[in-house]
Amino acid sequence: MLYRKKILLAIVELFGNEISATDFQKILFLFSEKQTDRKYDFVPYKYGCFSFQAMADKNSLIKEGYLANTRNWKTNIEHANFIHTIEETDRKILSKLKLQFGNLSTDELIRQVYLNYPYFAINSEIVSKHLNEKEIEIVNRFKPTITTEGIFTIGYEGRSLENYLNTLIQQNVKILCDVRKNPLSRKYGFAKKTLQNACESVNIKYIHLPELGIVSEKRKNLSTQMDYDNLFVDYEKEILPNQQKEIRLIHSLIKTYGRVALTCYEALPKQCHRTRVANAVHLLDSKIPIIHL
């Protein structure tokens, strides 16, 4: 079993073998904030801090029989002693959290997280229920406010879904254009439907533009930068000239929404065709800057 899943089970066990979905996310977040090598990242969601990976792991643990198939987090195995399957350092962190927060109501727990980590309340639909006006003003300071036009490029290689989304949120990106030919991924969170749902849950619109992608056959056997450069020279000659409709669409999205990102897999901009797409938009309107994330 993955170590991070053991952490999930240990939390449920320590908090009485059943804990509400909202409380669980908050406790896991507080635990992750204390870890040196954190296993889960979070995004500012409609109820505050939220980990998509943790939810995916919950579904996996349900299938494996460790958790009950309920909205709450509930262990399905009696006397398992999950707490002793995690490292001593992590056990100590959890024990302290249990002492500090174990007797708080859900509302009290939410308020504590919002007060101490206001960034994660920026998208909350319930913030006014838990914070007063002055406290909400502090939360609002963490909301991205920059609105100048820009075209961003971002790859998901080496990133968690939450880290990826936070990068977009903090840059106030409004539209994510997926320029993969086939938006499939073995990495959690980056297959088309999952990525679209995650983006829209944090108020980023997702658009797939497969016409701008490169077929997988042409991406095989790329080992040097020269291989990539040759591929992209061919891409600019053979594909981009026939996709001016999509280039103009991206330009119009920037004019409407201000800040638009192009995404594909590769971490390095020079090893992904999204950079060539961004260059094509920039040629159309040189006032639009290109920012690589």
List the helices and strands and how they pair.
Layout: H1 3-14, E1 18-19, H2 21-34, E2 43-45, E3 48-50, H3 52-63, E4 73-74, H4 88-101, H5 106-116, H6 127-130, H7 133-141, E5 150-155, H8 161-170, E6 175-178, H9 192-201, E7 205-208, H10 225-238, H11 244-257, E8 259-264, H12 274-284, E9 290-292
Parallel strand pairs: 5-8, 5-9, 6-7, 6-8
Antiparallel strand pairs: 1-4, 2-3
Pfam family, one: DUF488
Protein name: DUF488 domain-containing protein
InterPro entries: DUF488
Essential attributes:
9 strands, 2 domains, 293 residues, DUF488, DUF488 domain-containing protein, two-stranded antiparallel sheet, 12 helices, 5-stranded parallel sheet
Radius of gyration: 22 Å
Total beta-strand segments: 9
CATH architecture term of the largest domain? Alpha-Beta Complex
Side by side, the strands of the main sheet go 7-6-8-5-9
**Helicity level:** 40-55%
Distance from first to last alpha carbon: 33 Å
Q: What's the CATH first level of the largest domain?
A: Alpha Beta
Q: Which ranges are low-confidence, i.e. pLDDT below 50, for 5 or more consecutive residues?
A: none
Describe the 3D structure.
By secondary structure, the protein is an alpha/beta fold. It has two domains: 3-141, no CATH class; 150-292, Protein-Tyrosine Phosphatase, Chain A (Alpha-Beta Complex). Helix content is 46%, strand content 11%. The chain is built from twelve helices and nine strands. It has helices at 3-14, 21-34, 52-63, 88-101, 106-116, 127-130, 133-141, 161-170, 192-201, 225-238, 244-257, 274-284; strands at residues 18-19, 43-45, 48-50, 73-74, 150-155, 175-178, 205-208, 259-264, 290-292. The chain has a five-stranded parallel β-sheet, with helices on both faces. Strands 1-4 form a two-stranded antiparallel sheet. The longest helix has 14 residues, at 21-34. The mean pLDDT is 93.
